[in-house]
Amino acid sequence: MSLLDLWEGDSPSAWRARWQVPRLEVHGLIGSTNxxxxxxxxxxxxxxxxxxxxxxxxxxxxxxxxWESPPGSGLWMSVVAPPIEASARPLLPIRAGLATCRAVxxxxxxxxxxxxxxxxxxxxxxxxGGILCEGGPSTVVIGIGVNVRSDALRPGLAGTxxxxxxxxxxxxxxxxxxxxxxxxxxxxxxxxxxxxxxELARELxxxxxxxxxxxxxxxxxxxxxxxxxxxxxLGIEVASGEVRRVRSGGVRIQEG
Length: 256
Prior knowledge:
Elements: H1 12-19, E1 24-27, H2 33-42, E2 50-53, E3 74-80, H3 92-107, E4 114-116, E5 120-123, E6 126-135, E7 140-147, H4 165-168, H5 174-189, H6 198-207, E8 214-217, E9 222-228, E10 234-237, E11 243-246, E12 251-253
Parallel strand pairs: 1-2
Antiparallel strand pairs: 2-3, 3-7, 4-5, 5-6, 6-7, 8-9, 8-12, 9-10, 10-11
Helix pairs in contact: 3-5
């Protein structure tokens, strides 16, 4: 491991105290922040332990897809989730997505972020970040990646991905973004055994970029996306008028 003594102008111990996290590791280079956070969780570390990396060599997204995380170009982090009932785990990517949207908007005033079910964060139809929740029987870690600087993007991705500094029209402080994220995660994960109700449901509806679009699910359903339900499933209205609940896999908007 290559632990850093200085990150974004201050020591990890100073950031740990400021962000009020029980443990913080900042790595210059690591395979995967999720793997490290999971090791710490299995060793008994406290909830909201945080692992950040300048660069990942084995960063990944849903279904093991490679997540590009070049050095210093984004916020690559993983958080040990608090204890949560197994039945509520499908809510974690949604709640973490809401936390990420809020943090992105606070770090870059004027930017509006949305959620593409199940785990993508979009700005203006382009992906700025993603969520990956992984774990075992008793522990869950939440990986969050946000493209901050333009060198986070491979050539040719400008049409489908975006770095936060572009819509922000200026630099974005990664330490500020991390602090905002931890604040929102503590708020949204503490009651994670609850469904998505009330104001939270209304916020999710406003951020749901699939709602009302013709979509195709990897599980085979084609129809109009009717929103994300109380326990995290995506409703798709198929040709018969039945609304089917999709709980896993990806979804794409059907063009034309």
